[in-house]
Amino acid sequence: MLKKIAITIPVLVLLVCVSLVCYGWYLSGHIEQRFSARRWSVPSKIFSDTTLLYPGQRINPNLLKDKLDALGYRKVNHQPLRNGELQVTPGALTIFLNDLKTPWKNRQGFPVRIAMTESMIESIIRTEDGNAVPILELEPEEISLFFGSERERRQLISIQQVPGHLIFAVLAAEDSRFYQHPGVDFRGILRAFITNLRHGSIRQGGSTLTQQLAKNYFLTPARTLTRKLKEALLSVIIEFKYDKDEILEIYLNEIYLGQKGSVAINGVGEASYFYFGKPVRELSRVEAAAIAGLIRAPNHYSPYQDKERCRSRRNMVLNAMHNKGWLSRKDLQTDLKAPVKTVGFTVHGKKAPYFVDYLAQQLKTLYRPEDLTSLGLSIYTTLDSQVQTAAENALATGLARLERIKPELRREDPAQKLQGAVIVIQPGTGHILALVGGRNYSTSQFNRITQARRQPGSAFKPFVYLSSLDDFSPSDMLSNQPQTYTVDGKTWEPHNFGPVTKYTVSLRDALKMSYNLATVDLAMKTGLDHIVDTAKKFHFSTPLKPYPSLALGAFEVIPLELARAYCVFAANGVQPFPLSLNGVVDENGKTLEQKHLQIERLIPPQKAFIMNFMLQSVVTEGTARSLKDRGVFWPVAGKTGTTNDFRDAWFVGYTPDILALVWVGFDNGDPILSTGSSAALPIWAELMNSVPQYISEVGFKVPPGVEKRTVCDITGLLANENACPNPVEEYFLAEKTPAEHCPLHRKSGLTDLIKGLKKLFNAK
Prior knowledge:
With about 775 residues, the chain is α+β, with helices and mostly antiparallel strands. Helix content is about 35%, strand content about 15%.
């Protein structure tokens, strides 16, 4: 019996050894696969566009300072000495610029002084050498992340970027014998056991950094003997396959170090910015010790939770560093007295959420969702965060103002409240500078710019007038008299917004005053099928039918498509594709996707100019003339829109450089009891006044093929000098310039006699 047992034990030992070897071989392959593949799930970052500053540029000082704050610039009371520092003095900002890294430009940061008045940049000077900077480019602002299910933030760093005192601090806090043990520190386990036994509680842990890494990567948090044995085996294998520095680098990028709202802070690279607002290579000794002290219980020792508790834990780490010979007695005494100074943080809501949702839809055609949440891509967009902020503020203020003026518009249910939407585009490029799809994203994620279908009302009229330009000129006369039309056997009788006072009006007057009767008259003369064909060329995707009511905007459109269509006028006849994406860069800096400018010529520049000139009169003399009372004095073209029963209010206004569309209404179609000029236009004006950098005194340039003539405002024909009572200047397509003079106001012999007598009298 004993002989059998003696034989069995070696066999069992052999079997156990063979099993361990086989299992170790299996784990080795598993580790190799895990470590050789992507080690971390890094969310993709979404950035705004860069911001250009130059002398002579008009600015909104408050938005500029908010921009610098969002970019992470830290205010200091001295001349900035390092990247990210900002000194604010009367009449000037002195900034040590952060490094600029985009797919198109790589620039090291340098200190500059921006001298400015309340509304303009006067000069930009490099403080190092006093040289003038003609154009300054601020780095993009991070506006959002594509998170995976774990919602982790991290900035990957190499071991070469980590200062020595941070490495010593981490080792002192967690594993002082890291470079001596083979993955499991039996001496440390014994020491921890004795310490815990002496105190009657858990005061020390025996896990090495390698064991912590094995647990985080491969094991569950369950505290069982099986898991501990597996952890030890994994640690030994990891130590066998990888050198110490590589293991330490993985650990420093993996370790959990706190919480920012619902987002986990992982790795010392991210923690360095989160707690101290600087890259890891710039951490001081006391800051490094504070971060190392967090590892054991990040939220318990967080300086954002309790600074004194954080300081006490930090000092324990400093003392441990001294005991190991990694910190001198003199430096220890100095460091122990230092306070804990954090950069501070605010948990912001999702920036530009409707814009990000639209961007995500465009990205779906390029990347899988799991790639966006784990590949660490840098996604550069067209968003101008200053314009976005201005749009959000203007919409919120405008809707609140309407509810204050008209209490009947108030709704208690957040889902039923008065709504609005804004989009701002650069007409020549299609770059979306701002997009606000609703009043409150947390209440409703429905994007009213890209998803809603609403009647445009009079905002559709410019496409009727454009369709007529082959046969009509701005001075041609239309009937503004009541008329009944038959549609599908039923009668339809349009009405003007107000009482009819002029029964014959020019195209220009009909458009600027938004006369419905004259517009329908023009549509019938132009041909409804022709208007539908014209609108289709402008890429309206919603159905448009050749009914007379088409001329008054009775058929629904998507606001984004309406804004894009207006871009054709502003961009001299070409239509851009609306772009939210500039480019995508992988974690190695390689450009993966870059959207190129896509434009399509739809109409000649001559017709675009004629439309612009007529739509400018809407602003100077027509339904949008109240803009001048709201501080808009620069050349602007635009059109108001109001639908039946006041369900929708619109204003689309633009210059050659910028176009903004504003819509106001209820989602359920309740009347808002307001017009486009009283509901949407004030929001547009507040928005544009907030972004003076986009305002230009230069209007629309007259292209070749357009001629100016003076015409009689009653007949629309060439004015007779000193005879027509109200001559006006008008632009015409060269081939449509009138040749006939006004027959109603001809010079008479008596008129010539009186004129001659006046000249004779003046001569004497």
